[in-house]
Write a structure and sequence with these properties.
alpha/beta, 837 residues, eight-stranded antiparallel β-sheet
Amino acid sequence: MGTNAPRLDILAPLSGWLVPLDSVPDPVFAGKMVGDGVSVDPTSGSLLAPVGGVISNLHSAHHALTITTAEGVEVMVHIGIDTVMLKGQGFYPLVQQGQQVSAGQPVIDFDIDQVGRQAASLLTQIVVTNGETVARMQAAQGLVAAGRDVVLTLELANGKDASPQAGGEPLLSAEIAIGNPAGLHARPAAVFAAKAKTFSSDVRLLLGDKEANAKSVVSVMGLATKLGDRVRIRAQGPDAEAAVAELGRLLDERCGEKADEAPTAPAAAPTGAMQQDSDTRLAGVGSSPGIAIGRIVHHRLQEFDVPERGQAANIEQQAFARATEEAAAQLDQVKAQLSDPAKQAILAMHQELLQDPELLAQTYSGLADGKSAAWSWRAAFSAYSARLEAQDNPLLRERANDIRDVGRRVLALLAGVKQAALDLPAGSILIAEDLAPSDTAALDPAKVRGFCTRTGGATSHVAILARSLGIPAICGISQAALKLPEGREVILDGGEGTLTIAPTADEIAAAEREIARLAERRAAEAERSMLPAATRDGVRIDVVANIRNAADAREAVAKGAEGVGLLRSEFLFDNRDTAPSEAEQAAEYCAVAEALGKDRPLVVRTLDVGGDKPLSYLPLPKEDNPFLGLRGIRVSLERPDLLRTQLRAILRAAPLTQLHIMFPMVASLDELRAAKAVLAEEQVAAGQADVKVGIMVEVPSAAVLAARFAPEVDFFSIGTNDLTQYVLAMDRGHPQLAKQADALHPAVLAMIAQTCDGARAHGKWVGVCGGLASDERAAPLLVGIGVTELSVSTPAVASVKATLARWSLDECRQLADEVLALSTAAEVRHSLNQSAR
């Protein structure tokens, strides 16, 4: 920073961890369209003024304010992401607009727990909105204390005149209706203000008798516009006519905000649920389908009282190490009681979290400051879960519950509190604020007929476990559910997401009929699940399973799978210090082969790691974009020793089954030929010539060149998850883009069709082993395009078979012709929903 220019220090308005602005999960703040600054992940709930000055704007929703300093610097503080939708709930302003405040003075109190549960994120932005007043800015890092630590140091500009040019008669637009569902909140306001700044004229936005500087995000937000409000644009200056015209068009286009991109009411209390709530019915998000009749049993999480100060650091470290070891042992005991590999995998992930380096680093940092192990651990996992919940990606947000589950398990051990087991009476409808995945995994479907939670969503591990257990469930249920009396009879509809709390005799009778109908349909599908999969006119389609090990294979066969379309061999390589030996691998592959027998196909995918999926014993260079780096077959070709060992082990299963070997992430014929050359040498050495060879179609080049790959392979298997992200150039885990990475996008379907066309020209078959294969609505479409094998999750085997049996091949092809002519993923989904049988 310079030494002669005037300087301004901005203090932390909240205690917490500083986060770079460009990593905030909101494109407007991350793109610095509001202004430059920093974000804080808060641990306190009283907002202090970061600078002295005048409250130049206090938003009507009380989640944001701006202070203008004596130097003319506008400092905006915005609590949380999309908190405008809370409409002031949980926020308590302590100041008024126009009031003079001093740095460190409390200005807004907020209920950090309430806002944290309902908001998309608690990340709080401290932003300088008039950047022309600042010559240079330096942001701090790490943990900060409210009102004490400096988060931004500004070197102020000297005398820069950014005033707009005025002159001529002012121009006034016609009235324009606001089309943004949440009004001009931060995102569209920033787009509007950024466009207004491109004009030299003075531009104002008018709402009734109020007006705002159109070039100020804060001022535009301060109008607190709502959907349907009618505004006008007034401009005065040399380019006023262009300003009025272009800004008017921008408002007509909702400032680029699509209807489905606008912030909505929080998942914990969805708008639809609030509209449907009544004295007799509460609503939430249906997360596991089915209907259940039972009596309410409440489950409340235990509270832990832990001391802040600890004993000697070495004593606290030893206590923490013992607690994490015991927690891992507890999870082992729960896993041992489960037969479902999917449920075991979730708990295995929980065990990995116990050794997460970021969690441990934050915990040890607390210990070094003299805090107790329990206090340090709670602060660490709370901060970590908050970061996950700050993501726009719902899958990542849902994982915060897993962090809290693991955190509470260790915290109970550190606090010396025995966690109460979920011992529930038969016929229970469980209602809880939150339900730990480990608790959900241990639920007995014979006793628990359904459950509701205030938190979570359809993609949470709790919901996934509920579906695997066949238990109807609702997430995001109304707060009123927690106050329902114990033992009251209710009807839970996990498909519609409703809880009928005072059912009449007629409603109970109707629910019983629907339960019987669904049970009859499931039973009929299960009964037919062992029949060969075929269309209504008898065309055979192989419905096989995606698995990880022999136990999965046995379960899949028992549920009607006609083989294995994808054996993910990575499970042998994960969670260990060294690569598995040839003998270890061969034992596993042979166990899977024996579970299938000689008449069923087994497709083994070679090791698919690298980049975003590293192995501790396989060091790879850090990459800026791991999805475009060393992955799949590229890693195997870099390490031919690992590839040869794996191929030898796989080939030992050849006499036991119909063996297929599949190479992942193949992008070029050179890669395929190099891998086949290694395989050919190992086949000669093993004396196993009769093995089919294929590739995963996961990158566009493989689909585009399918006709050239086809003469050199026996089959293709399309991985729709990765293919989607590569075709659309959208990372499946990206906070803003993940929801648009849809496998039913016409471009992805066109790639599937191109692969089928290329394969068909050379008499080769095409399968789909990605997530799209398990969507029963998509099954007729994929068959119509030319897919002849669907490799699905085991629970989907029966329903996919049943769906295919309701369609003829000609009907599938007609559906494919219609769908391939559509232009958007939304149109495709609508078409499939309309055609569902």
